[in-house]
Write a structure and sequence with these properties.
The protein is an alpha/beta fold. The protein has helices at about 10-20, 45-60, 95-110, 175-180, 185-200, and strands at about 5, 25-30, 65-75, 120-130, 130-145, 160-165. The radius of gyration is 17 Å and the shape is globular.
Length: about 200
Amino acid sequence: MVIELVVATRNRHKTREIQHILGPEFRVRDLGAHPEVPEIRESGTSFEQNAKLKALAASRQLPALVIGDDSGLEVDALGGAPGVYSARYAGANAKDTDKIDKLLRELARVRATEDGRRARFRCVVALARSGNLLGTFEGVVEGSISGEARGDSGFGYDPIFIPEGFEQTFGELPTKVKNTISHRAKAIRALAVGLRRLKFND
């Protein structure tokens, strides 16, 4: 039996990534097929709060299992920024290249040392149904920020994030490798375990 999931996003890159991580046991759709669900404002002050906000809001309007996720980059030299503001770091409608450029400029401005370039991607996924929270799942991958953007795979800050144990950025690594080690992969794998338990206990 295939488990149906709706992701509370209109980001097709994210939806494809989640489907790839979960595999054929799951069928993943997003809000692109549900124009009746309004844009959900990320007003929380943590990844967990934003993930819950999105999952709960969408699940109140859709007869399905809904997942909401929030993720971002935390850079030591910038006090954990951009953090929950990762998507809006260079303005509401900024391109990925604009966000990357701003982050690299900020690291230059604070004269970040090698230790200061330490960073991590963090992802929290919330699962909800009919306005009820069923669980939250977190994934973290440690790494560092490169001196320049490298690679054109992935999205967001992928071209400047070098995961621990690798020399390539997420933008250079094959999708299969990234989807094994990434923050989102870790959170989604934990979600999959929770969903299988839910399936058997229903």
